[in-house]
Amino acid sequence: MSTTCQDEIRSILRLLKTSTQSDIIGACVVSTDGYLMASQMSTEIDGDRFSSMCASLLALARQMLTEVDIGEMQQVMVMGSNGISVLTYAGQNSVLALTTSPKAIQGRVLMESKRAAREIRRILEGDE
């Protein structure tokens, strides 16, 4: 991935974090095989470890969808007592991963995730 492409993606991730209405506290783009492509995550979170966990979660979710035959995966959401994590495909081999505060509004997070993933997909496809 080119430096220009990385900078554009980081800009989108920064915008996600600074949006006061979405309560997103961390955002990154990872490859489906676990490589961290761009990040705006908290310093307390190990980006490489988080990326590999995202890839594992995606693999399990894809396998589950195949097993129950309900189509292609679009998003994975994990809700915890202290926030939400959302994984949204942002291209054939990349995923946008977001983490939120506990006060985040689920619908807004899903909407912001889809919007940002479309922008990231456009950037990545232009970089090929």
TrEMBL record:
Gene3D superfamilies: Dynein light chain 2a, cytoplasmic. InterPro entries: Mycobact_SerProt_Inhib_Rv3364c, Roadblock/LAMTOR2_dom. Residues 9-100 form the Roadblock/LAMTOR2 domain. This is Roadblock/LAMTOR2 domain-containing protein. SUPFAM superfamilies: Roadblock/LC7 domain (SSF103196). PANTHER family: SERINE PROTEASE INHIBITOR RV3364C. The lineage of its organism: Bacteria, Pseudomonadati, Pseudomonadota, Gammaproteobacteria, Pseudomonadales. It comes from the Bacteria.
